[in-house]
Amino acid sequence: MHASAEFAESQCRLCGSGGSVYMRRPEFSIRRCGACSTLWCDPLRFNDTFNPDNEDAYLEVDDAIAAENKLRVEFVQAHAPPSSHERLVEIGCMHGDFIEQARRSGYDALGLDLSETAVEHAEKHRPTMVEYGTLDDRQADESLDVVAGFNVVEHMEDPGEFLDHVHRVLRPGGWFFAETPAQESLYHWAFMARGFAQSKAAHLEVGMHPGTHIFKFGKKAWRNVLERRGFSVATIQSKSTPLRELLAKNKQAPLLFRGGIVGVGALARATGLGNRVLIAGQRR
């Protein structure tokens, strides 16, 4: 694959500022916004094909996913309890485990996903909990108390438009929760160092790629992006993806690469520089 002019993007889709080239790869560039610090791929994608996540990998470690979602529900409850923030929608909910746990905790929760196979699986195992779709004009203004998106915003072609919808559909005092790959992480620095050191190597994994992991945020970037859109940022914290989940998603990778995941993952947990950032923002 080579850079596609159709999907080229030199302007930040979060704040509209220009982005300088941070890293050049043989197939694409990674740009950095000087205003909000967001990183993104240029081009955003190589074609208009939808690239769903590795759903089978998630099913292989569904117990680890369930444990993660339990912590996410507790995180949401700490900021927006169902007694005052009942109406919840999760975007990119995959098979609906978070939604199931949220309903058990008292939320009027619904999941939305753009993967037909994920929605079909959810309908078989968790009827009525997941629907096909995303956040768009179909949702009424100020109709929700909570919007959540875990490991999904980085895959969007226009996360700025999505966040505008989040602000629109939340009532004043409503909450937005997200989890994304983090710039302030050992994984990020290791991937970037690898990319700079092997700048001519095609198909090298650097943690970002057009059409999949298109954007990368971080603590500074998320604070900038949300405050510009009328949110007060209450919590921004590092977290680590369970190693079983990371290994399941990379089981076809070379053994040396998988060993690196284990080593960097252990060091990330010891230093608190996890591969992801978890945020909570309240609509003003």
Structure report:
With 284 residues, this protein is an alpha/beta fold. It has one domain (5-179, 211-238): Rossmann fold (3-Layer(aba) Sandwich). Helices cover 35% and strands 24% of the residues. It is built from nine helices and eleven strands. The chain has helices at residues 55-60, 62-79, 97-104, 116-125, 159-169, 186-197, 219-228, 243-249, 255-271, and strands at residues 19-24, 29-33, 39-42, 87-91, 108-113, 130-132, 144-150, 170-181, 215-216, 231-239, 276-283. Strands 6-5-4-7-8-11-10 form a seven-stranded mixed beta sheet, sandwiched between helices. It has a four-stranded antiparallel beta sheet with strand order 1-2-3-9. Helix 2 packs across helix 3 (97-104). The chain starts with 18 loop residues before the first strand and ends with a strand. The relative contact order is 0.16. The model has no long low-confidence stretch (mean pLDDT 91).
